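subagent[fold] <- orchestrator: predict structure for attached chain, return tokens only, no commentary.
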Amino acid sequence: MNQIVECVPNFSEGRNPATIQALIDAVTSTAGVALLDHSMDTDHHRAVLTFCGTPAAIVEAAFRAIRIATDLIDLRTPIGVHPRIGATDVVPFIPIRGTTMQDCVQLAKRLGGRVGRELEIPVFLYESAAAHPDHVPLEAVRRGGLEGLAFRMASDPDWTPDFGPPRLHQSAGAIAIGARPPLIAYNVNLRSSDVEIARSIARVIRQSSGGLSHLKAIGVELASRGLVQVAMNLTNYQVTPIHTALQAVKTEAAKHGIEVAGSELIGLVPQAALDQAAAALLNLSRFDSGHILETRIAETILKKDEAEQTLSNFLAAVAEAKPTPAGGSVAALVGALAASLGVMGARLSQQSDSTARLLELSLQLHRLVHEDMDAYERLSTAYRIPQHRPDRSVAVSKALQRATEVPMEIVEAACEVGRYLVAVREKVKPAVRSDLTVGLTMAIAAAQAGLSTVKANIESPINHQLMEIIRARIAKAITNLDELRGLC
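subagent[fold] -> orchestrator:
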């Protein structure tokens, strides 16, 4: 999975396991999505799911869960202590791998449009996705709860939803959908039943009251446990770490003669945040994640697994019953491998100039793997243009030119790889010469394969001037190949 997005929707249900399971089933039934975590809390009357997947799949999974929540959760029933505006209260998208915050903004808009259109629920975009500055902080959207939001929607044009109707859904309320960096939901429980003390501590430590930067906090009652809680969101744990938040609560609680009963994480937490806390509590200097055994093992194995998976995926793609990737892409990959063998030999024999050029050729041929696929796709698209269209002949001619130039570039690059391999082989130790001979054989094969594609395409009715240019390059490549075969 080259692109991974995380989604952490919060639902206003924490007491009915059957409803939570239905939400989980909606997510896990979506191909391309993996459920990472789920939690439910009776006092907060809230459930949180954490899942990740490809951008397209993550939007589909989120929509399915929202649809189930709309059917099964009714905001007119008794509520919990956590602020909320909807059956599905908030849906954030977080970029994890191969994606940007702007990508997640587009996902938020795509999901919001569908929710507003198909489920008729008003959607407010927040954080990085917000279209209005007043909607950026989630607490601004939630201010005053359902009643406060309904009043603003009815009286203030700035509070017209980004998507959906200009009024609350009768049972599902509204939804905040956005894009944000990872945050940590961290709660500290106090040995007290006085919720006003928890609220007072929350006011002191949160950023909006002049407290810790990037910290949001509220005080709530945990009736089922006979405790009160300072519930916090750390929106930038590198600025305000977990242990700093905990110490702030402890300090304020001590002023009231109250002890901390424990703390809890809601959802998942970045490993770096725990490493940070451990290093601080142990007073470690020069500490980083590389000191952690499991992390080092995981990183090392992951790199190996990713390389194996990439090759496995390519082999599977070549074997599929479709025209790409095919001969040209395979030829380019073989040429890139030949060049990489040359880089190895040149490095071992300290031939810096050859190392640099062979590395460039390896990267060039790797790029041509994808360019050959793209050229074929463009040619197929051109051929699908109806015969009567006047632009068809020009489109086909241009696509054929590209479909011929790419394999010709593969041929020429592979021939150059072969020449470098011959030169490098003369200066390496005997034990390495056989590896470079393998590389030379592969370079010749890549050039010959690319030449076959070029010759096939040149027979098509393309621009005559290009045909003459290509034929001159073919003749030169054939001469080079004959020389390389004599040296193999």
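orchestrator: received. Logging for downstream: The longest helix spans residues 392-425. The first strand starts at residue 4 and ends at 7.
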